[in-house]
Amino acid sequence: MQGKPTLIGQVNLWVRDILALFRKAPGKWMLLGLAHVFFFAMLPSLLGLKFFAFLMLPAFLAVAVGFYRDADIGRDSDLGDLLNEIKPYLPKLLALGAICVVYVLLINLLTADDAVKLNELAKGDPTPEQIVEQSTPILAKLMLLLMPLVLVIWFAPALVAFQQYSVIKAVKSSLAAFIQYLLPLLFTWVAITLIIILGMMLFGVLVGILSAASSSLSEIFMLLLVFACMLLSSALMLAFQYVSNRDIFKMPQPAGTVDLL
Per the UniProt record, which residue ranges are transmembrane (predicted)? Predict the structure, then answer.
């Protein structure tokens, strides 16, 4: 009987599983990352759909976790299969999304003065030192306020969609899991972030070489670098979300599948 892995052992296991999952279908996961970035980062900022995005975020995360689960167990599924699987629990996922919207509205109220300060700072002609000095406390405050939201949506959507938890039970369980597994989750997040930074550095070297060959295209190459890193970050973090859900909550396999392990 195997004992509970050590902190380093758990982090190592999660990182290996995340990278192994990514290597199975990198193109598919980059497309999933593209959908994540487009619908929940780019589109809301362009069209003012931020609250709608937060309403739909739990349902999207449930589908994303489902894609990684199916790849992990060798099941060939498409978007329609997963939508049919989570369809009975869509009202609960939307209720979870409504909680996210209310919390974001609360954050907006608490940071309204800070937004005004940043807007005034942008309109002026500040030095880099002034930008850092004035924006750092505001960004730190925003990150702290967003942390409870991250803790809730990390586990709750999959618990609702695949383990039939109620919304309240899913929220409580998600918060409890973060408290219990704080260090493994934190160190795995740091490890994945370092991998992403390393990937950015390697891509940066390639961009530098291409830019030297064609300086007129350097800005395009740089934009492509940033965009590719955003997709990679999203794909790896979604894989991390699945792996941690799988191991902490013993995510069941979908009906009709056979355990090949």
Answer: 29-45, 51-68, 89-110, 138-160, 181-214, 220-243
CA distance 120 to 117: 5
Q: What is residue 179's three-state secondary structure?
A: helix
Q: Which segments of the chain does DSSP mark as H helices, in order?
A: 7-24, 26-37, 43-47, 50-73, 79-86, 90-110, 112-123, 128-163, 167-180, 182-213, 218-249
Instruction: Note the maximum CA span of the chain.
Output: 65
Distance CA 22, CA 118 (A): 38
Instruction: Give pTM, 2 decimals.
Output: 0.84
Question: What angle separates helix 218-249 from helix 26-37, to the nearest 10 degrees?
Answer: 100
Give 116's contacts (C-beta < 8 A, 6+ positions apart): none
Give me the residue spans of the domains in the chain.
Answer: 7-249
pLDDT in tens, 55-100: 999 999 999 999 999 999 988 888 988 999 999 999 999 999 999 9
